[in-house]
Amino acid sequence: MNRQNLFGRPSFLRVDLDRLARNIRIIKKRLGQAVELMAVVKAEAYGHGALPVARVALAAGATSLGVAIVEEGILLRRAGIKVPIVVFYPDFSYRAPLIARYNLIPTVIDEKFGRSYWNACQKLKKKAPFIVKLETGLNRYGLPLSEALKLTRSLLRLKGTELWELASHLATAGEETGFARLQVQRIKEAMKVFENSGIRPRYVSLANSGAVIDLPESFFNLARVGVLLFGYPSETAAGSSLPVRPVMSLESKIAQLKAIEADETVSYGREFTAASRRLIATLPLGFSDGYPRHLGNKGWVLVRGQRASVVGRIAMDAIMVDVSDIQGVRPGDRVVLLGEMGKEKITAEDLAHWIDTSGYEIITRMGTRLPIEYAGKAARLLKLR
């Protein structure tokens, strides 16, 4: 999807691609030379735009890409991306020909799908690399060790197949390390069982964003990193020891200023009542753009480098903020709803804290009607500016 701000919409996302590249270099240094980086670009790269992020990530040292669903991988292939693209989540057999056609690497958890994928690769005279997902404690997708070994053996008997990756997924990395270390031990035990059976995957992958911060024993030879690329280490980011910085900001402009008197109300449901004469600014975006509706009367934004409280319910296409205590405010003034202005900043984790959700949800929920303006030298090199 073309998310360029072709018509100058005053409300938009800004993505700093130079900061993204810097974050990736920091992550690469933490991983070390023996560990490859897979850049996770699912969900439009956590709302930042999958294709620009993929190109910057690859230029900065990532060697493969990860997506959640087949469609995401197809879009990258059609845009000319050549590196390995992994589909994290298992799919249905009738979609196996798509995976083969677009040279995607599937996660296989059952024989039926595995053989459908192999048959599709055979018809196209292609090799059939695949991933087996091992269950080590998340209990989402994945197979117990005995089933994973049985499936792998069966698929490797077929001509042209390769166990590209033995993978599992951490349940608590970035939150607490006790259970995560147990999962590390479980995948190490699985590696021994596979090796004793004569099976050596090209990659073993367990580490995610949280693990990159505080669980180096989980790195093996491939780390799958998503939200950390974008400056959000984990849902408990306060303890992060990596100097990554948020890449995304959400900006708008004041469309109207309106003085209201004491006892007047603002927005639907009359949930805000002015205690005294107030100056209310209306911003031309709302919950249809992904700004959480539950931030009404809870959040704040930045105007002229100062905090202004959100008042009243968030509407579908409008947000009202109280700018009474900010000097010199005018229609057209820049407003930051997520990001930095002067010495103040608002992070996705701030927004998440105010409404009891996660920073991940905040950045991935930003609406597709919001255009994206890419900033930095990388944007110019990609001809996005």
Report on the structure:
By secondary structure, the chain is an alpha/beta fold. 30% of the residues lie in helices and 24% in strands. It contains 12 helices and 20 strands. It has helices spanning 17-31, 42-47, 50-59, 70-78, 96-101, 111-123, 145-156, 178-196, 209-214, 348-355, 359-364, 377-381, and strands spanning 12-16, 36-40, 64-67, 85-87, 104-108, 128-133, 161-167, 203-205, 222-225, 248-253, 256-260, 265-266, 272-273, 278-283, 300-303, 306-310, 319-322, 334-341, 344-346, 372-375. Strand 12 and strand 13 form a beta hairpin. The two termini are 17 Å apart. Residues 234-239 have low confidence and may be disordered.
Give a brief description.
The chain is an alpha/beta fold and 385 residues long. 30% of the residues lie in helices and 24% in strands. It has two domains: 17-230, TIM Barrel; 248-346, Lyase, Ornithine Decarboxylase, Chain A, domain 1, CATH 2.40.37.
